[in-house]
């Protein structure tokens, strides 16, 4: 059962949905056209060494760290994670959570793909990519998928546990993971910062919309 506890109140979900859509709409009319390109180019170049742009500024383990973190937002990991989570919901007969998960995963994938093709923004091409990347740049698919799936996971945990500390921890850990995955895309040079912000907005907005829809359907029935 989906309930409207303090952490997951419909009013808060509506606020998150509206804020996320507002951010995305602002970025969609500014970023793909290059409104922030100079600043974003400077930021991406500042993450690399001046002598060799193929090297990250920072400790030697940084590249290994961001390459592994970014994998957590890729389709192989998210597919396995989502299937495992769906299996747990089926075993426990939590059909509302299963509906939310499937709607979030399938919907976000379709929406992000369509947005990428619509805006057609080219990935940063003025510095080496530190990991293979294809298709278009805006919005970031890894960031959108991570926000949609991991926030849904955090909300599911927060929805079934009673301890406030655990609920906050679940949501906090999800937010940190989503942030790290998005940041890794910028460090690896495969996305502009605005791509990542847009991806976070898309994933969060869609997850909020699905959660609200499921809550209302559940309460009507």
Structural write-up:
It is a single chain. This protein has 221 residues and is mostly helical. It has one domain (6-220). Helices cover 69% and strands 0% of the residues. Helix 4 runs antiparallel to helix 5, helix 6 (141-160) packs antiparallel against helix 7 (164-187) and helix 7 runs antiparallel to helix 8. The longest helix has 28 residues, at 193-220. The protein is globular and about 60 Å long. The N and C termini lie close together (11 Å). The model has no long low-confidence stretch (mean pLDDT 91).
Features:
8 helices, mainly alpha, globular, 221 residues
Alpha-carbon Rg, integer: 18 Å
Structural class: mainly alpha
Strand content: under 5%
The number of strands is 0
Tell me the number of helical segments per DSSP (H or I, 4 or more residues long).
8
Give the averaged pLDDT, no decimals: 91
| Share of helix, binned | 55-70%
Largest sheet: none
Shape: globular
N-end to C-end Cα span: 11 Å
Domain tally: 1
Order of helices and strands: HHHHHHHH
Q: List segments where confidence is low: pLDDT < 50 over at least 5 consecutive residues.
A: none
Chain-wise SSE layout:
Elements (H helix, E strand, L loop, with lengths): L9 H19 L8 H10 L15 H10 L3 H17 L3 H25 L21 H20 L3 H24 L5 H28 L1
Helix pairs in contact: 1-8, 3-7, 4-5, 4-6, 5-6, 5-8, 6-7, 6-8, 7-8
Structure in a nutshell:
This protein is mainly alpha-helical. It has helices at residues 10-28, 37-46, 62-71, 75-91, 95-119, 141-160, 164-187, 193-220.
